[in-house]
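Obj: model holo form, ligand = adenosine-5'-triphosphate.
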Amino acid sequence: MTESIIQLRNLTKRFDGGTVAVRNLDLDVIEGEFLCFLGPSGCGKTTTLRMIVGLETPTSGEIFLRGERITDWPPQRRNIGIVFQNYALFGHMSVYENLAFAMRIRGQARERYDGRVRQMATELQLGEVLEVRAARLDLSTMQRVAMARTLLAEPQILLLDEPLNNFDPGLREGMRAELKRWQHQFGTTMIYVTHDQEEALTLGDRILVMRDGEVEQLASPMEIYRRPQSLFVASFIGRPAMNLLTADMEDGELQLPGGVRLDLGRLGMAQEGMPARPVAGIRPEHLVPSPSAGELVRLEATVDLVRPQAAKTIVDLRLGHDVTLQALVRSPYREAVGARVAFGFDPHKVVLFNADSGRSIG
Ligand code: ATP
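Output (holo structure tokens):
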């Protein structure tokens, strides 16, 4: 059975001045999971993290750690580690001194912590730089020192707030892999804040998508990708974004622009409760060029733009005069701009939304 380590109940944070950063948030963090908070800037990710660690006091609601109410506990009593974007290392001290700092100021004798410091340094590949001053390290090494220092405190949970923001794209990739490896190695529950969907999809066991201080969806990356629960999630996750087409309901059929018809029965959906003008979501990678006759629904369009991206190519397709779709196909794509082409898609992969509520249907 899965066990939650942190529970947030009806958590709200209103700042002086009236901004509500987090609104009635309920969340169960599962022991040992890698949970990503994902959302645009200002949606309340950092504020939620700061309330969990105790750096921010909730306006209302409660926080539980292994069932114990910790809402009013000071940060040091919670034993929750946090790694920020700026690693807050002591630049004039050596890596060793940075790692040993907390234990030293607590008055521990060196022989008690020396072995642990060295072992952690070895595990995070810092053995070679133990005597180097922190200010002289490159970014990825600083990141590892910050991680090592936090892990040495043996936190019950590790919170990371956009820790890879300062990295070049190439280095980010490597550090992501490293983070994932550490999580397996140490088994620590991690909550990771990012506004980068790719990062969340790569790292998270689950992703909490936030918007304006509220939860849009909490699910595994695959579930969020396949079954976005709202138009916001549908357009936020996936590059290029999901195609969203306004459809008309007529005689149990969805009529999409360009004369494409979808039988609701074929989608395995009932007609009852279906709005008159639902929005149909089709992922660009689910549009297949030159479909052979069969299970796929066929559409005809004009090629508007072709943008090769190494192994894949983004093809903009014009369906009606003001409706375009994007398809993501394998390179090379040989049709020229202006050509009339056929594409197909699997109707079971279409996601329907209610345009008024913004929520998915079915
Ligand atoms: P970012 O990625 O930009 O940090 P975020 O999702 O982490 O975004 P928060 O930093 O939690 O968002 O901020 C949520 C909202 O609360 C924003 O509107 C922000 O301006 C506001 N806010 C954050 N901290 C404070 C504060 N100390 N005082 C007043 N308003 C604040």
